[in-house]
Write a structure and sequence with these properties.
The complex is a heterodimer of chains A (416) and B (544). Chain A is α/β, with parallel strands linked by helices and 416 residues long. In chain A, 40% of the residues lie in helices and 17% in strands. Chain A has 12 helices and 15 strands. In chain A, the strands form 3 sheets. A 7-stranded mixed sheet of chain A has the order 7-6-8-9-10-14-15, with helices on one face. A 5-stranded parallel sheet of chain A has the order 2-1-3-4-5, sandwiched between helices. In chain A, helix 6 links the parallel strand 6 and strand 7. The longest helix of chain A has 24 residues. Chain B contains 21 helices and 8 strands. The termini of chain B are far apart. The relative contact order of chain B is 0.08. Classes of the chains: A alpha/beta (416), B alpha+beta (544). At the A-B interface, helix 2, strand 7, helix 7, helix 8 and helix 9 of A face strand 3, helix 5, helix 6, helix 10 and helix 11 of B.
Chain lengths: 416, 544
């Protein structure tokens, strides 16, 4: 008995020694392509943080296929063409097995041709406007039918709204999102004159006249704002909204780009009662989620990241986190880091994310997710007031925009 | 439902046991059982149902061992465990711990009642009716306004009549009369009643009724000529009022935008106009002012829950001083070496601005929340539908004060005299004993300090980000160039002018993107005809 124990110990020591040497020699590189400076740093820095945290967790468990993961962090600096250059650098110079990155759709569109040219893999963690399906991207954020349409549906069914003010920042996501929303609203019988559409430039700070217009629009009641305003414009918008005497009762705002992380930068009281639609909220009560939130706070504190333990999780943070885990599980299953094998392993994969069970779509690169509508509370968190029945199947191309049923074929894929 | 409200006045209390049982039934999974229980609760006509319904609607009713409580705000501790303080529905007493503080109960020990949509709508209209007789002015106003929104209830009319005639607040009287007319129009089958309602909506200048009235004129073909005349008259009334409001808004928005422009451009005009240095880091001085305000807010512990409004009175001078100090350092280290090389100083200050942005980002991170002092939140109504926001009014007066201060400083003080002398002819000024280096340094500090002040004021209208200065720098340069270099009055005129034109464009049928394009085109055209700006420098300075 004693002897046996000794040998086991020896064997364990030998194995760990082997493991050590293996990890010293054999690593697998992954790329992190998030802006750490410029406009989008405000949102994307958190995603880098959570991806590094996921990597740390995986490495502590022994890595992937016995190899330690070595993250390569680059900074595309909110400069859209630079995303393509940095992606190329990651793929050709660092030879990363996979890349996690991008936030704005324009940055993804810029890097996409590079990933397709080299048949490399990108995990994209942010809700977006859809109308895309590249075999070289896995979309772990929501497609329009998992966020935009359910929110509009909720406003009509539950709050009996009749007038819709579509307000967004002027770039590809809000423009396409509003196209989808408008098509949906028209399809359920909202008359055209009850839909207003307006865009402001990036960084727009002066929302006086827009809020004035909303006030006129909402004067008769039953009106709401569907907001795809992105970035730092949200703060002046909500402040002006409150200061002109409008409340969530006069005209609720449903935001598609305001999460817990953005709320940290805002004066919350004027926002209380307004809504947001996401597939994950930090306030989701489940042991897995509580553990995740705690781990993230602890990670930020331990690594002296700005904000420390006051940091919060949000939908894109969760999506970026489980993206890493999905890739690792798929590589294990495929027994290889080869992009084509990993891709096949990901299709249809079921997995536990912090926010609950989720599933990758068997064919269209997107993720099955639940849909939540949350109401902003005084502490900057959301109270979940509506929840979809189970997971919602993602669309890559919206049936609302392709009414003839002719969906474009996916792009990219294995090299011919 | 009216009978229920009457009950309420007659019977203050109902059977406690019955209420408790009904509330417990609301936790049932069967919606039919819940509907019966909710009706029964409404029918009790108990005064305690007012806070109960309000809390129930937002999902803040908890059962603890079967006893119903109203929950306060949910508190999350560092361990992410959630707690809530509880107030009994039946006795109205809050549970206290041994120190006499509200006891915090773990959320997991409680059962939460959350209504579905149908229940929420029902409860909302019941609370609205109850709130019409609330002693609180704001609650009454809100309820009076809500009464005019669907689902319209004729039950509200007697209450609204009372409010419209007797309420001490003019605003509530007006809103109640408006809602009453809206309900009568929306629910009555009698054409005469509806026409009367339309007539009074017109007299009330009701913006809320405009869509309704226009719809009626366009779609309803059964109107007799006489009725059409009534509706048209009402529409004319409302539209005239709307135009007045719009004019007021354009003017107000323009003044406000303009005053922000002026405050930003003032410091730049001093540095660029008097020293000829193009300071691209000017926006970052503003950002530093904003972060100074943010830091002071943290130091004073100001927040929405515990307002420490005096922090702002400290922040105003502090942001000026901190920015001036940073300006002094920049002048010493960078600008001083480059006085005769404008392009190099431009490039060097661009570099400084990037350094400042990244340093601030590294220290504070990207997301920071700012809370204005509570007296700068909200606004007041000058006339019907015409409101002024406190923060905008504050910025306007701050700007005026800053402009006046700078003018006095430049015109009537020895410092101003020396500065002007140095700017006109440096060598000559030096030869009469003016310490010209110090004059440059102090001018740079003054300009930077004014930007810091602008940053502090801007925290009341927008957020705080490391690159916030970049949003304003281009506009500020435009203002200075249009105004004419070195003339404060030029900055005031061009700032206000640009603000009013921009806002009028945006408020008509142009989107902000187009408004900006049009403004820039106008500026380019203007510069073609008056390259020296509105107030070109005269005399000797013109040759420089």
């Amino acid at each position: 008995m004693k002897r046996k124990r000794k040998t086991t110990l020896l064997a364990a020591a030998a194995m760990s020694l082997l493991g050590l040497t293996a990890s010293a020699q054999e690593t697998v590189k992954i790329g992190i392509l998030h802006s750490l400076s410029g406009t989008m740093a405000i949102s994307e820095t958190s995603l880098r943080d959570v991806v590094l945290m996921a990597v740390e967790e995986l490495n502590a468990e022994g890595g992937v296929l016995g190899k330690q993961i070595e993250p390569v962090v680059v900074d595309p600096a909110s400069n859209w063409p630079l995303f393509a250059e940095k992606a190329k650098e990651l793929i050709t110079k660092d030879e990363v097995a996979v890349t996690f990155g991008c936030w704005t759709s324009v940055s993804r569109k810029s890097a996409l041709p590079v990933f397709e040219e080299y048949n490399a893999l990108l995990f994209y963690p942010v809700q977006y406007e859809g109308e895309e399906q590249s075999l070289n991207v896995f979309y772990t954020g929501a497609s329009p039918n998992q966020q935009l349409v359910p929110a509009a549906e909720y406003m009509i069914d539950e709050l009996e709204m009749k007038k819709f003010y579509l307000l967004g920042t002027d770039y590809v996501f809000p423009r396409t999102a509003n196209k989808v929303l408008k098509a949906y609203l028209l399809s359920v019988g909202v008359p055209e004159e009850n839909i207003m559409e307006e865009y402001t430039p990036f960084h727009h700070q002066d929302y006086q006249s827009i809020v004035g217009k909303i006030k006129t629009f909402a004067a008769g009641g039953d009106a709401c704002v569907l907001s795809t305003i992105n970035g730092d414009s949200n703060v002046p918008f909500y402040k002006e909204f409150a200061n002109q005497g409008l409340t969530s009762e006069d005209c609720p705002i449903v935001a598609f780009s305001v999460s817990e992380d953005e709320l940290r930068a805002m004066e919350v009281p004027p926002l209380v009662g307004h809504l947001a639609a996401w597939n994950y909220f930090q306030s989701k009560r489940s042991p897995e989620n509580i553990a995740f939130v705690k781990a993230f706070k602890a990670y930020c504190e331990a690594n002296n990241l700005p904000g420390g333990k006051d940091r919060v999780t949000c939908d894109p943070i969760e999506a970026a986190y489980f993206g890493v885990k999905v890739w690792a599980a798929a590589a294990e299953e495929a027994g290889s880091f080869d992009v084509d094998k990993v891709r096949d392993a990901i299709y249809g994969m079921e997995f536990d994310a912090p926010g609950g069970k989720k599933k990758m779509h068997p064919t269209n690169q997107h993720t099955y997710k639940p849909v939540y509508i949350g109401e902003i509370m005084r502490d900057g968190q959301f109270k979940i007031i509506s929840e979809s029945d189970g997971l919602v199947e993602p669309d890559s191309y919206s049936a609302l925009l392709h009414t003839d049923g002719n969906f474009p074929a996916p792009t990219g894929g294995p090299k011919k | 439902m009216l009978s229920f409200i009457l009950c309420l006045c007659l019977r203050a209390t109902a059977d406690d046991a019955a209420i408790q049982t009904h509330i417990q039934t609301l936790a049932s999974r069967k919606s039919s059982e819940r509907a019966v229980a909710l009706d029964a609760l409404v029918a009790t006509g108990d005064a305690r149902m007012v806070p109960f319904f309000d809390a129930y609607r937002i999902g803040s009713i908890y059962l603890r061992e079967g006893v119903p409580f109203i929950g306060g705000d949910v508190i999350t501790d560092n361990n992410l465990d959630q707690f809530v303080s509880l107030t009994s529905v039946l006795t109205g007493e809050t549970l206290l711990d041994e120190n006499g503080e509200p006891e915090l109960i773990p959320l997991l020990e409680l059962e939460n009642l959350s209504p579905n949509r149908k229940e929420r709508i029902k409860v909302r209209s019941v609370s609205m009716l109850l709130n019409l007789s609330s002693p609180d002015k704001d609650t009454r106003l809100k309820a009076a306004k809500q009464a005019g929104v669907s689902p319209l209830q004729t039950d509200a009319i007697p209450f609204l009549t009372g409010l419209a005639e007797n309420d001490p607040s003019r605003k509530i009287r007006h809103t109640a009369a408006e809602s009453m007319a809206l309900i009568e129009f929306g629910t009555s089958d009698d054409v005469d009643v509806r026409m009367d309602a339309i007539r009074s909506l017109g007299e009330l200048n009701s913006l809320r009724a405009l869509a309704l009235v226009e719809n009626l004129l366009e779609k309803d073909e059964t109107l007799t000529p006489k009725q059409t005349a009534i509706v048209t008259a009402a529409r004319k009334n409302i539209i005239t009022h709307q135009q007045k409001v719009k004019f007021f808004d354009n003017f107000k928005f323009g003044l406000s935008t303009g005053s922000i422009y002026i405050l930003m451009a003032l410091g730049l005009a001093i540095i660029y106009g008097l020293m000829g240095v193009i300071n691209m880091a000017h926006g970052e001085m503003m950002m530093i002012g904003a972060y100074t305000t943010f830091v002071l807010q943290k130091v004073f512990g100001h927040g929405p829950e515990s307002p420490q409004n005096h922090f702002f009175l400290v922040a105003l001078p502090a942001s000026f001083l901190v920015a001036a100090l940073v300006g002094w350092v920049i002048e010493r280290l960078v600008v001083r070496k480059l006085y005769h090389r404008p392009f190099e100083s431009l490039l060097a200050t661009v570099g400084v601005s990037f350094i400042l942005i990244q340093v601030v980002r590294l220290i504070f991170g990207d997301n920071q929340s700012s809370n204005s002092p509570t007296w700068l939140v909200g606004g007041f109504e000058v006339a019907n539908d015409m409101t002024l926001s406190f923060n905008r009014v504050f910025i306007f007066f701050l700007t005026m004060a800053a402009v006046a201060g700078v003018m006095v400083l430049m015109r009537y003080t020895t410092f101003g005299l020396k500065v002007r002398a140095t700017m006109q002819h440096r060598e000559m000024a030096a030869s009469v004993g003016i310490h010209t280096r110090r004059m440059y340094s102090m001018t740079f500090m003054l300009g930077s300090g004014l930007a810091g002040l602008a940053g502090c004021a801007l925290t009341t209208v927008s957020g705080i980000t490391p690159d916030m200065g970049q949003n304003y720098i281009v506009d500020s340069f435009l203002i200075v160039v249009i105004g004419g270099v070195g003339e404060l009055i030029g900055v005031v005129c061009s700032g206000l002018g640009m603000g009013i034109i921009l806002q009028s464009l945006e408020n008509s049928f142009f989107s902000p993107v187009w408004a900006k394009i049009i403004i820039l085109t106008m500026v380019v055209a203007f510069i073609q005809f008056r390259p020296a700006g509105l107030f070109p420098p005269k005399g000797r300075l013109a040759d420089v």
